[in-house]
Specification:
It comes from Pararobbsia silviterrae. This is DUF302 domain-containing protein. The protein is of the alpha+beta class and 134 residues long. The chain has one domain: 2-Layer Sandwich (TATA-Binding Protein). Helices cover 41% and strands 24% of the residues. It is built from 5 helices and 5 strands. A 5-stranded antiparallel sheet has the order 1-5-4-3-2. A hairpin with a 5-residue loop joins β4 and β5. The longest helix has 17 residues. The protein is globular. The protein starts with 5 loop residues before the first strand and ends in a 5-residue tail after the last helix. 23% of the residues are buried.
C-alpha cells in the first residue's frame, strides 16, 4: 500500500495516550469500538520486541452494513481501522485507509466515501485539539 492510500496524522502524544484519546472521542460520538489490539503486547507475549503499535477497529453498523450488502468483500476493510504507532520522536502517528482507496477497491456507491471522510475529520479534529505532551 502506498502512502497516498492512507490518511496520516501526527499526534502530540505518545501511543497509549493517543489510543485513549481516540477511543474516548469515538465513544463520545456514539461510534462502536469493536477492538483495541496492542500489537506490541502481543509480540512481547511470544518473546519478540517491537515498537508500540495499536490497532483500533471501530465503526457504525448503520453505516457499514449497507456497504457490505452492496459488496460483501468490503468487509476486508470494515470495520474501519486505525493504526497508532510510535514515530521516531517518541510521539504517535495515526493512519487510516483513505476514502478514495476504499471506494476504488469495492463495488460500493461513491457516497460510501462519507463513512471514511467523516471519521477522518473527527479524528483529525481530536488530534489537533489534543494537549501537547510535556
Amino acid at each position: 500500500m502506498n502512502d497516498e492510500d492512507m490518511y496520516t496524522w501526527p499526534s502530540p502524544l505518545g501511543v497509549s495516550e493517543t489510543v485513549d484519546l481516540i477511543v474516548a472521542t469515538l465513544a463520545h460520538v456514539g461510534a462502536k469500538v469493536f477492538a483495541v489490539i496492542d500489537q506490541q503486547a502481543e509480540a512481547r507475549a511470544v518473546g519478540l520486541d517491537m515498537q508500540a503499535l495499536t490497532l483500533i477497529l471501530f465503526g457504525n453498523p448503520r453505516a457499514g452494513t449497507p456497504l457490505m450488502q452492496a459488496d460483501p468483500t468490503c468487509a476486508f476493510d470494515l470495520p474501519l481501522k486505525l493504526l497508532v504507532h510510535a514515530h521516531d520522536d517518541g510521539r504517535a502517528r495515526v493512519q487510516m485507509l483513505r476514502a478514495e482507496t476504499f471506494v476504488s477497491r469495492y463495488d460500493v456507491p461513491a457516497n460510501a466515501a462519507g463513512v471514511f471522510t467523516g471519521a477522518a475529520a473527527l479524528l483529525e479534529s481530536a488530534l489537533l485539539k489534543a494537549p501537547r505532551a510535556p
